Amino acid sequence: MTNLESAHATPMDACSTANELYEKCLGLAGNLWWSWNGDVAGIFRDLDPVRWRALNHNPIALLQEFTPQRLAERANEMVLYNKINHAFRQLKSYIANRHTWAANHGGVLGSRPVAYFSAEFGIHESLPIYSGGLGVLSGDHIKSASALGVPLVAVGLFYTQGYFRQHLDDSGMQVEEYVETDIRYLPVRPATNREGEPITVSIETRNGNLMAKVWKMMVGRVPLYLLDSNVEGNSPEDRQLTSRLYGGDERTRIRQELVLGIGGVAALHELGIQPGVYHLNEGHSAFGPLQAIYQRMQETGLPFDETVRQVASETVFTTHTPVPAGHDRFSAELIQEHLGPMADKLGLNHEQLMSLGRIAPNNSNESFCMTVIGLKLSRTANAVSQLHGHVSRRMWSELWPWRVEEEIPIGHITNGVHTDSWMADPMKALCDRYFPTNWHEKHGEPDTWQHIYDADPGELWETHNALKTMLVNFMRHRLASQIERRQGTPTQIERAKRMFDPQTLTIGFARRFATYKRANLIFSDLDRLADIMNNTRRPVQIMFAGKAHPKDEPGKEFIREIAQLQNDPRFADKVVFLENYDVNVCRHMVQGVDIWLNNPRRPLEASGTSGQKVVLNGGLNLSILDGWWNEAFNGVNGFAIGNGSIHASNEIMDRRDAESLYEVLEQQVVPLFYDRDVDNLPRHWVERMMNSISTLAWRFSSHRMVMDYTNLCYVPAAGGLSSNMPKH
Ligand SMILES: *Cc1c(COP(=O)(O)O)cnc(C)c1O
């Protein structure tokens, strides 16, 4: 790293100063810390706003387009010298700071960190290693672990193509495109062992070894290790294995999970890292404990059963899926092929191995379920919201047939979001004016957010409106290029650039287009919706985004329906579908909408986190009482659709929920939004914004979530104690 002090030293020759400045910029780009610090991202943007956007906000790719001399000139022009030096010093002091929350609360974790496994990490749009909610949750988890100083290392897979890019064709059909990212533009370097040598792990299967190399990326204080099967010695097919998320078939999937779980634990061993706790975020990594058990048996010479007990007491398992079909299952053949050698090493026969993944151990008709092995090889297990806890205890009760449902050992820790990543800079600036100075370290504490009531309502409203205008501009720009790409007419492009009115009540809906999320529920009665939206005094406009899984035909059909409504004169210019939902599109939407609509079929949404991002920016949630909203809504901090009742018939449930949705829009949302005082300020609406921020921002912050994981899971597991996680 560059010497900080020399930046202040007097006359140096221009060339070495330029080189030094360039090095500092590379240093900033090399730690993802920049991605949640607006001032630092602002430096990169100011270097070249047009290229910054074109390069999908990738600072390394941007810097490659500059020579040190050109960078120095540009920094002079834009007065960036001090900003760069300041940011660089801040990063250093952030990394060095030892006075963190975990210094007081992370006790026993000390030298034996938590190893956090996840199949995806959503950290920033420029890193293609996530697809959606699970990934963003993992990203937010490690960002908060970094802020709180929780000793944690993360393990994932290195996808160079990631999830697909989405376009719509003229008919509104989703087109998927995979793009290879150049490794030189990613902030990774080969992970090395204590001798400084790059490491490779090798996983035995019945038909040869599967190898992976390991990359390292820094997310604040947290190292993220990514396994990559693109190495010499692997078959051409295996070299592609980790290039895409959730592609391929069952075989691709089990091999990816082998690399993540078994390869991941082996990689930590090679790196000389001895985890005190294993946290398996969803079942994808649940083969990992087998490798940990094997390593422990080698070290201690203890038998399998005793070692299982030890490793399980150090293992935390988080389940995310309330849909039975959403849990990975593998056939006996696939398991035998891929885990046969591991079973041999552990001294297990095939049936014993299979029984680890079965609810009924001896039922030879049962396939091998990753959630079952996750639950069996961990002593602490949790769901991701209170309601999801109930659903999960019921769903897995057969694993503990002698227990009543409330005593099934699956608790819950509700998901949260990383405030600094999702709150817009103007909102942060507003909070800076009214909150205690150290509030960035206290996102997870209720007192912090009470200060929102100190803010001037007009100021909060203006801030929100500025964000909404930014969203509308973003949308117009994206829409215009979407139309351009489809070879639309100049008139169509001009129209796109005037679409939407920033004064109008704006609803956002963006998520994965799985059918249970019912993206088209609001279109159940088009005439009634047209009446709501086209009221000239109280108009409404809606913005959609979201990808359907490439194999989910009904999900794609939903997208097509919505895209085609843009041609219906009643909805033209008022309904918009934005392509390629990703962290960038999400950030703009959650920061700018008035209302965030969420209408899944209860209780199929495990938690949901996008609505939590909206809270931070002054938007209000309008949601079914499912996932996090079921425990968040208090009558005055947003709006509820329905009363939480469910029905065995989807048709009846959908009809009922649609009716309630229209009613709430007509009777509550629209009137409240357009109820203005003499200054055109919607006082009661702003009051609700403040209620939302003060009651929800801290509870659904990933700082609170990581503090809960630390107190309720990590510290007990590292000390060999059971957790007493809430079950009700
Ligand atoms: C936050 C986020 C999600 C998760 O949102 P849900 O509310 O769970 O649907 C999905 N995708 C992206 C890109 C996100 O940023």
Shape: globular
Average pLDDT reading: 95
Q: Count all strands and give the number.
A: 20
Low-pLDDT parts are 1-11
Distance between the termini: 50 Å
What portion of the residues fall into strands of 2 or more residues?
5-15%
Total count of domains: 3
Helix-strand category:
alpha/beta
Query: CATH superfamily name of the largest domain?
Result: Glycogen Phosphorylase B
Count of DSSP-assigned helices: 29
- C-alpha Rg (nearest Å): 26 Å
Bound molecules: pyridoxal-5'-phosphate
Please give the largest β-sheet. Answer: 10 strands, mixed
Question: CATH first level of the largest domain: which class?
Answer: Alpha Beta
CATH topology of the largest domain: Rossmann fold
Helix content: 40-55%
* Reported CATH architecture of the largest domain: 3-Layer(aba) Sandwich
What tags apply to this protein structure?
alpha/beta, Rossmann fold, 3 domains, disordered N terminus, binds pyridoxal-5'-phosphate
List the helices and strands and how they pair.
Blueprint: H1 14-29, H2 38-47, H3 49-54, H4 59-64, H5 68-77, H6 81-96, H7 101-105, E1 114-117, H8 133-148, E2 152-157, E3 165-168, E4 174-177, E5 189-190, E6 200-205, E7 208-219, E8 222-228, H9 236-239, H10 250-271, E9 277-281, H11 288-300, H12 304-313, E10 315-318, E11 329-330, H13 332-346, H14 350-355, E12 368-369, H15 370-376, E13 380-383, H16 386-395, E14 411-412, H17 419-422, H18 425-434, H19 446-450, H20 457-485, H21 490-496, E15 505-510, H22 526-533, E16 540-545, H23 553-565, E17 575-578, H24 583-592, E18 595-598, H25 610-615, E19 620-624, H26 627-632, E20 639-641, H27 650-673, H28 683-696, H29 702-718
Parallel strand pairs: 1-2, 1-9, 2-8, 9-10, 10-13, 13-14, 15-16, 15-18, 16-17, 18-19, 19-20
Antiparallel strand pairs: 3-4, 5-7, 6-7, 7-8, 11-12
The site of pyridoxal-5'-phosphate (PLP) has 11 residues, from helix 8 and helix 24.
